[in-house]
Write a structure and sequence with these properties.
With 450 residues, the chain is an alpha+beta fold. It has 13 helices and 20 strands. Helix 1 packs across helix 2 and helix 8 packs across helix 9. The structure holds glycine and manganese (II) ion (MN) (2 copies). One manganese (II) ion (MN) binds next to loops.
């Protein structure tokens, strides 16, 4: 049966109320849970409910639709799959119409098969319909169909909504600032993610494959109660670490490789997102150590810049300044700092942003700029800070001693009233800490120290 804590129920109820307070009278909001996707024949891909729907309900079944109505009163309606003993025997339990209102603190529940008829009734007297413009066109098409059906009745004295508006403008802005329940969930996701990364570091030994490290990482997530990964785990050794979204995870890890693990666990719908980079042998060689130390310094500079009223761009500029100066010092870039920054020559080796919003989606919703200016941080925002350096064989003008080194260091940061709090603590981070930790904790080290 669906287990949902009182605190969680109160959170979702409050979010529905907050959303409705933003909207004018005679509005109706529609949010869909999404549907299962067929992988082949009668096998589905694992289902993960839509984040907006989860945010407003806490309910995770597919084929469900939330309708919020604001007329002279406010009402919440949920359309769900009907109870069906045979289907439930084959495919799993369903909450059903009878249990849904009390379990989820909603006003009414209806069978999903009656969605068209039910929404057409609820649309009576509604002037504005709010639906996400960033989701599939299908729902927008359905809304259009309902409005067309109502317009046909206008001649007979009926009425139809006059506008369809983008729900994201309100809902996604709400999601940017986390409330206490969300921060607790993100803390837990961060804690589990840290434990998974430690398990991954422990498991590296001679002739291990990337997928075996992935197995240890994800087993720890599951062991600690996380239902799923927040995104596909990256376990990239050697030159694979220079592929930013590498998820094949099929290569054998070699003794002299750095291993880059970018992975996070999900907890109550919220994502952890951590990247660790460590030497397979337990010891960095000198080029690896130099670049690693540089990325770590850039990360620290960016984290220091995270505080209310600063912007992501300030954090990014802080990171690229450190990286660019370091690359100049190592002879990997030429010229002076100002020219190199102006020409963005660091982009050869650091080609992504310094971070992103974090929440129910790993790359969470919310705009980064408002009126073409970078928006300022506010307490309750959660961000990642993840600078990196990637030098591959393709950089043919670079001495080959630097080749096949990919480094990213990523932590999750809560903006507090006075600065930034790192949620993903507990990982060895400096070169010395990593080497000491690996000497102490790595399993089954062979006589070569690997
Ligand atoms: N794991 C995806 C990212 O760090 O952005
Ligand atoms: Mn990230
Ligand atoms: Mn990541």
């Amino acid at each position: 049966m669906l287990k949902i804590s009182l605190e969680q129920l109160e959170f979702h109820q409050k979010k529905r109320q907050q959303l409705m307070a933003f909207l004018p009278d005679n509005s109706l909001v529609i949010v869909s849970s999404g549907e299962e996707l067929i992988r082949n024949r009668d096998v589905e891909f694992p289902f993960r409910v839509d984040s907006d729907f989860m945010y407003l309900t806490g309910f995770e079944e597919p084929d469900s639709v939330l309708v919020l109505v604001k007329k002279s009163t406010e009402e919440s309606h949920l359309f769900v799959r009907a109870k069906d003993p045979e289907q439930e025997t084959w495919q799993g339990r369903r909450l059903g119409v009878l249990a849904a209102p009390d379990t989820l603190r909603l006003d009414c529940a209806h069978e999903i098969d009656g969605l068209d008829e039910g929404v057409l009734t609820l649309l009576e007297g509604v002037e504005s319909v709010y639906v996400s413009f960033s989701h599939s066109l299908e729902l927008l098409g359905t809304v259009h169909g309902w409005i067309q059906a109502l317009k046909e009745k206008v001649r007979k004295g009926g009425d139809a909504p006059k506008q369809v508006c983008d729900l994201d403008v309100y809902l996604h802005e709400m999601r940017v600032i986390k409330s206490e329940f969300e921060v607790q969930s993100l803390r837990k996701a961060a804690t589990i993610s840290v434990q998974g990364h430690l398990a991954a570091m422990k498991s590296v030994q001679s002739s291990v494959f990337e997928f075996q490290v992935q197995a240890e990482l994800e087993a720890e997530f599951l062991r600690l109660g996380s239902p799923r990964v927040a995104f596909n785990s990256i376990v990239a050794s050697g030159k694979n670490a220079c592929i930013l979204h590498y998820t094949e995870n099929r290569s054998e890890i070699k003794k002299d490789d750095l291993v880059l693990v970018d992975a996070g666990a999900e907890w109550q719908g919220y994502a952890g997102d951590i990247t660790t980079t460590f030497p397979a042998s337990g010891r960095f060689n000198s080029e690896q150590a130099l670049l690693y130390t540089l990325v770590l310094a850039a990360q620290q500079a960016a984290i220091d810049a995270i505080k209310p009223n600063e912007t992501y761009d300030v954090a990014h500029q802080a990171a690229i300044k450190v990286l660019t100066q370091g690359l100049l010092d190592l002879g990997l870039l030429q010229g002076d700092l100002d020219t190199a920054l102006k020409e963005e020559s660091y982009k050869r080796f650091f080609m992504h942003g310094t971070g992103h919003w974090l929440g129910m989606d790993v790359h969470d919703v919310g705009v980064y700029k408002q009126n073409q200016s970078w928006r300022v941080f506010k307490a309750g925002m959660v961000v990642t800070v993840e600078p990196g350096l990637y030098i591959s064989e393709e950089h043919q003008d670079v001495d080959e001693k630097w080749h096949n080194i990919g480094i990213r260091i990523e932590d999750d940061i809560l903006v507090t009233p006075s600065g930034g709090e790192v949620l993903t603590t507990g990982l060895p981070r400096t070169v010395e800490e990593i080497e000491t930790w690996m000497r102490q904790y790595r399993q089954n080290v062979n006589s070569e120290g690997f």
